[in-house]
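Sequence in, structure out.
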Amino acid sequence: MKKLPKNVYPKGPSLYYVCKNKWTRLCRIDAPEEELHRELWKILSKGAGTLAGVMDDFIANRLPKKAMATQRDYANIIKRQLRPTFGHMRPDDVSSQDIAVYLELRENKGHGPAGNREIACLSSVFNHGMRIRACNVNPCYGVRRNTEKPRTRAVTDKELRQALRNAHVSLRRLLWAAYLTGFRQKDLRSIRRDQITVDGIKVWQSKDGKHEIRQWTDSLRRLVRKELERSKSDWVFTNRSGNPWSMSAIQSAMRRLDVSWTFHDLRAKADSDHETGLGLMRRYNRARRLRAVK
């Protein structure tokens, strides 16, 4: 064995796991590497030996490395769906058929897309399990997901005008900024003052980390200037209290606005209202004609 795992030390003919000066025997020093890692996993997972133990290790050591929104979503999925369904099973006892049956049950209950998200989370758990030698394969691989229909809701100019007229000034400007820039909700509400440059608004997209600058137009420049004057927060777009928007706050505000479309639909409208892609002048010229932001 070339290198021992962290906190594993030889003593006499055996290997031990040492934690807080407590020595726990693992196996003989000449045992196969697989046996060492199997015994080590039993200790690190507190002897659980079940998929629930892998989930706990995933939450503690792998999930914090993901985006905050993913952390929240995956933690809820594990708590509400995956642990009650699969937590009692040993990792290598879960088969591809079990995954397919789960997806079918979720689809029959009208939650097909949610089932896809849940299995995506479970797949990440299994990938983590393989990395820590808690399982040999990922049974989620190769299982066909439920069919999803993309959203096709098109927000009309009239609907956007009506929403802008009815919204509080803070939400109105956030909606207007979403239409002018085409930014994702998370990227938009995360914009800080130091991202406002001479050339435009500079962002690193949350989905792929790519750098992007949305160049200024008269409408966008005027909007950002008013927001910066309205609040002294480090964030550009803030709620009526001057605090940065949270996802749940935006969802609540949209529900109070009582519209039949979502904040996310504005991104599709921004994209469709100009010729060749986000950031081109045709969309901005069209936006000016709305004249909804005063």
